[in-house]
Structure formats: C-alpha cells, structure tokens
Known about the structure:
The strands form 3 sheets. A 5-stranded mixed sheet has the order 2-1-3-10-4, with helices on both faces. It has 2 domains: 34-93, no CATH class; 105-245, 3-Layer(aba) Sandwich (D-Maltodextrin-Binding Protein, domain 2), CATH 3.40.190.10. It has 252 residues and is α/β, with parallel strands linked by helices. It is built from 9 helices and 10 strands. Residues 4-29 have low confidence and may be disordered.
Amino acid sequence: MKKKLICLVLSILLVFSFGACNKKEDNDNFKKPVVVSSAKADSVAAAKEYANSVGAEYHQMESSQDAVLAVINGKADYVILDEYEGYALTQGNNLEFSGRCEYDVQYRACFSIDNTNLCENFNKAFSELKIDGTIDKIKDAQIKGKSLASDVEKGENGTLTMVCDAVFENRVYYDENGELKGVDIEIAKAVCNYLGYGLEIIVKDFDEMFQCLDDGTADFVLSSAEFTQERAEHFVFSDVYATLEYNVYTLK
Length: 252
C-alpha cells in the first residue's frame, strides 16, 4: 500500500512538472519581439506602426545609436532607422536590412499662393530629374556621406531665391567649413540649372521661411517641408520631390 501511494505521488508530480514545462515552452513561443527606435518623432511613428503590424512590443531609446546597441546586445529584435541612419549605423555592425516600413515622409517645394506658374515649372523639373536619375544620384551620394558638389550656372532667366532652415540632418545643414550642404540644396541647384535660373539661398528659422514667401523675400521653400491642410490654405505645394524611407534592421 505504501509503495502504491509513493508511486501515485510521483505520478502526480510528474504530471505537474510536465505541465509546467509545457507552460514555460508556450510562454517562450508566444514571447513578443521587441522593436526599438530613437526619440525622433518620425522614427517613433514608423516604429510604432511597424510594431503594431507584427504584434511586437515597442520601446523608445534616447538616440539611434542606443537603439542599434539594443539589438546588438540582444535586448531588442528589430531597430527602425531612416535610410541615412541605416547606412551610417549598420556599417561594420552585425546588422542586416530586414525590410521596409510602410511609414515614410514626403517632401514638397512650397510657393506663395499666387506663384502657381513657378510651382508648375518645378513640377516639370522634378519629373525630368527623376526620370534621368539626377535626384536618385543626389540622394544616394548623401546617404553615403558624400555630396555631388554641383554648381549653379548663371541663369539666363534671372535668379530665384530659396529659403531654408539649416537644421535638417542630411537635407539642409552647415558642414564643418560652414558651407550649406544636403539633399535639398543639391536638388534646388539641379532644378535651377534645368529651368535656367541662378540661385540665391537665405537661411531662416522654419516658421519664418513661410513668411518670406508672403512678403516676397523668397521665391520658394525647399527645406524638408511637408504638406499640411493648414499650410495649403495659404501656400501652393509642388508634387513630391523626395521621400524619406524608414527601414527595419535586425541581427544577421
């Protein structure tokens, strides 16, 4: 009788032990992956959208470098980076491209409400410069930390004044020599050369850029400007001339 009781107890313990193992295995199987990004607004939006689409947890890091380290150190499964950061921060690291996010940011040129003709000319130029690959070449060079360093020819049709805010990394910024660089600067030069204009560039705070269109100080804004319904009530926007893409990276 005593042996039967012992066998019964051992059988019960074995069943519970097996169940506990299965429960742990189930928990491990259903563990959610972790997605991280920097605290930049668009990076956060892209990461949250991706995390939601794959049923993952989202965690915000202080910087893109911290987000990359979280994946390298095994604290996260995926990091969301824009295409410029993705190239710069994954070189030499054990990370690889996993896919595109559905989220991206579209940029347009902006003009005063009564300057629709210039807007139409810019649309034509953007279209042609996309077809001949100029805009892609400008973007690819900047992604790799380079600049095409193109010059603006003396315009037979006069000079256009561009206003921008030089705080947009990779798009409009001052380099170590104090020169304006970036994708938007190079695209503006290419457009003016295509249309036969010279180019003058003035730098203002972001909110002041649009005021320059109102008071005639500038002819156009080309400085990471996004379309909003509120702005469209006062200004004219071109077609999309550039898109900032967000990508997913994970360990190789």
